[in-house]
Amino acid sequence: MVAEITDIRINGRGGQGAVTASRLLAEAAILEGQYVHAFPNFGPERAGAPVTSYARISPEPFTEKTEVYEPHIVVVIDPTLLDDVPVAKGLKDGGTIVVNYDGMKDNLVKFFEGVHANIYKVNGSKIATEEIGRNVPNLVMLGALIKVTNIVKLESLVKVTLNRFRGVLGEKNEVAINRAFGEVE
Amino acid sequence: MSGIREVKGMTGDEAVANAAKLVNPDVVAAYPITPQTIIVERYSDFVNNGEVDTSFISVESEHSAMSACVGASLTGARVFTATASAGLALMYEILYVASGMRCPIVLAVANRAFSAPINIHGECTDQLVCRDASWVSLFGESAQEAYDETILSFKIAEHPDVMLPAMFGIEGFIVTHALERVETLSKQQVEDFLPESRSLKYRFNPDDKMTFGSLVLQDYYMEIKRQQEEAIQRAYQVTKDVMAEFSEMSGRKMEVIEEYKLEDAEYAFVSYGATAGNAKAVVDRLREKGEKVGALKIRLYRPFPSLDIHEALSGIKAVSILDRSATFGSPGTIVQTDLASALYGKENVPSLHGYINGLGGRVLTLPEIEEIFEKTKDYHDIGMTTTTDWVGYRK
Fold first, then answer.
1. Which of A167, B25, B39, B143 could covalently link to B82 via disulfide, CB atoms 3.0 to 4.6 Å apart?
2. What whole-number distance in Å separates Cα of residue B208 and Cα of residue B203?
3. CATH pick for A6-183 out of 3.40.50.2020, 3.30.360.10, 3.40.920.10, 3.40.1550.10
4. Residue ranges of the domains in chain A?
5. Three-state secondary structure call for residue B159
6. Confidence band (pLDDT; 50, 70, 90) for A116?
7. Looking at beta carbons, which residues of chain B come within 8 Å of A66?
8. A9 and chain B: CB distance < 8 Å anywhere?
9. B376: Cβ contacts below 8 Å, ≥ 6 apart
10. Structure ipTM
């Protein structure tokens, strides 16, 4: 049997926590008994430069270990990437893309002409700035992702987040994740 | 069988460090090199936090790391280190000293391409070219196997019938830096599996006078080498026994080779490390298309498990060897030449088609592996018994 696998790509910029996001998403999946292979893009990493990280998730065991070229889901952490990077590259037809975007959804859709995907947006930067006190919307975007894909349960993400960031920072992230879960459109 | 197993998310490097923590070696001497670095970083955290009793020796190079390991091992200490690529090459001289002095050191290799040009990514040449150094050599496919092989390598190396060093490799980044689920073992399980007491025969001892590393010329050098050969031949059965015992303890089947859907197969992939995972995924895809194909993973590379491989491939028409290593001017890929030697002159052996791929982290995709399968079938159909190709590069 060929395992049912969901491939997720997270596009961000160096320093925004794209790697942490793919890791925590994978840890949340493991917590639920799912199987994962999650890894950063293995290039030279510089603060501010476009970076990608990946999470491959399946409820069944799988053995493939290749990089992700045709994701089912793309998460865009940084809205400025829309002008610089083809964030929908390789996205499977009928896939899902979740963008941190502060404008109207109609304006966002213009960036993806010809892309057959379900497009969602949430103002992750605003939520992160208001709830965490810093524009680091990596986990915020996962809250939005979970709402629109059910790839893992919200409570699983919250649990691994609180485990990773003890104390106030974890609690602030929890509030921000929940808000993005509610506000994604 | 174990009771309730705890599952944690770990990268390959973290799995090695966490398993080594359970082993709690007396001495770790290591020098950091990408993509092994996290192993050393995590382990030095454990030392710093008092979670292990290990003496951690920071050294100025890998040559010094392995030299310090040899010195420590000669006192009877349990010793662990880790390296990759250029670091392993710099250790090369001392690898032979370690095995010649029968030091059961365990070495984790984060398999990485050699320079030049400089490249930090996955490739297994670094470990394969150590094949003649009289070290037991294993490959792991996943973070789980990295975890398990860390622990069982000590038991193989320290077995009184072996007393040779052991290395195991996981590929840079795609395993070392990738998060996977790992079923962990308890401290007690590892202590029961790997008892503190071990042979201290021919080790430095305050009450006894001994010399190590002396000059041995035409008179006895060859006898010493012959003893190493006999020891590594014994390591074959010891590895089988240790893996059987480990399987029983962990509930995870661990054998010198892994056979995947080979029972009725007409064609097979042979590979090792992470590539073996991709080969299995392709077997599943091809099976859905009605192809009779299976996969064989080489977990134990030295001593080479010729008997097991012959038995597993007996009756198969043609084999595609997916070799993530570079060799130049050779009659075949590195593992292909091993297979050819192991199978030559035997009955019911397949034709052997070697494919050098994935150098410097180049990805061999699943569709490319399917193409390799078709190519091998074509070679076989026109009667070619052995071929070697490079695949996945710009012509």
1. B39
2. 9
3. 3.40.920.10
4. 6-183
5. coil
6. very high
7. 174, 278, 363-366
8. no
9. B267, B318, B319, B320, B353
10. 0.94
